[in-house]
Amino acid sequence: MFRDVLQTGAAALGVPLSAGDADRLEHYWAAVEAKNRVMNLTAITGEDDAARLHFLDCVGLLSVCPARGAVLDVGTGAGFPGVPLAVLCPDARLTLLDATEKKLRFVDETCRALAIPAACLAGRAEELGRDGLYRERFDVVVSRAVARLSLLAELCLPFVRPGGLFVAMKGAGAEEELAEAANALALLGGEPAEIRTYAIPGADVTRHAVIVRKAAATPDKYPRAWGRIKKAPL
Question: What is the third-level CATH fold of 68-231?
Answer without folding.
Answer: Rossmann fold (3.40.50)
